[in-house]
Amino acid sequence: MPLSPRVPELGALELLLAVARLGSVGRAAAELGVSQPAASARIKGMERQIGVPLLERSPRGSRPTETGRVVVEWARNVVEAAQALDAGIDALRGHRDARLTVVASLTVAEYLMPGWLLALHQASPGTSVILRTANSADVASHVLAGDADLGFVEGPTTPPGLAGAVVAADRLVVVVAPSHPWARRRTPLTGAELAATPLVLREPGSGTREVLEQALAPYGGATTPRLELASSTALKAAAMTGAGPVCLSELAVTEELATRRLVAVPVEVDLARPLRAVWPAGHRPAGPARELLGLTRKH
């Protein structure tokens, strides 16, 4: 017997569950990687389709109506059954599909991915992994194009069209050679000073560059860089040879700071950033991609 046209699609039910759990259409939209207007339109369309109001909306957020709470419980059963089906299909396909393509930003690929992939190999020795590197903007493009099962990016937000989860925390640091005048500085650099100084930076499109530019936006934005380089290794070499102050991931300079080949300069601006796993919105990671995602949260 075919389903009634009043039965919403699975993605709409997932959205309704997210709104009920988070208390906000906007937060649910962000979690699922869609725009708030699209999420609102989808909820309203589902209300028209079912024929009853599902949400009570107020300046404080959204919550299910009395009938909406009933639909939420039914929706939860449907989504859980779909997840069980998804897991079962994964199990059937597991042996054949034990191949994983990952594209990651350079920082993640160089300093975090080796440990994650070692854990994946120990958990699933038969999984074959292809790892590619790109800056965060290109990672997003590859994942959207279907060229990778999972991506890892640096930056303050999830790229448009993708869903994601924070898997690690990082912080940018400003480093200089020991001979640089800033190496003896005792007071933190102000945002205005940092914005006015030509720095050695990653290229546009990198997560490192995006985070720095966002942090310095209140101070008029970063001035023209002294140099633009495409890897952490090149940035470190430039700093050690005295090319100028460099801004890069703290993960990349642990050894150099410990051995005093580079010196970290204190700054007043907040340069913390999340590192995210990303995948196409509406398509949860499956098989080896889901397994790797779970391992990143354990390690």
Note down, in words, how this protein is organized.
The chain is globular and about 75 Å long. With about 300 residues, it is an alpha/beta fold. The chain is built from twelve helices and eleven strands. A hairpin with a 2-residue loop joins strand 1 and strand 2 (about 60-65). The strands form three sheets. Strands 3, 4, 5, 6, 9, 10 and 11 form a seven-stranded mixed β-sheet that branches.
Secondary structure topology:
Layout: H1 10-22, H2 25-32, H3 36-50, E1 55-58, E2 61-64, H4 66-93, E3 99-104, H5 106-111, H6 113-123, E4 128-133, H7 136-144, E5 150-154, E6 162-176, H8 191-196, E7 200-202, H9 207-216, E8 227-229, H10 232-240, E9 246-249, H11 254-258, E10 263-265, E11 272-280, H12 288-298
Parallel strand pairs: 3-4, 3-5, 7-8
Antiparallel strand pairs: 1-2, 5-11, 6-9, 6-10, 6-11
Helix pairs in contact: 1-2, 1-4, 2-3, 6-12
- How much beta, percentage-wise? 15-25%
Give the biggest beta sheet: 7 strands, mixed
Query: In terms of structural class, how would the helical and strand content be classed?
Result: alpha/beta
Order of helices and strands: HHHEEHEHHEHEEHEHEHEHEEH
Q: Give the terminus-to-terminus CA distance.
A: 47 Å
Number of helices: 12
* Whole-number mean pLDDT: 91
Low-confidence stretches: none
Query: Which percent range fits the helix content?
Result: 40-55%
Q: What's the gyration radius in Å?
A: 23 Å
Number of strands: 11
Basic shape: globular
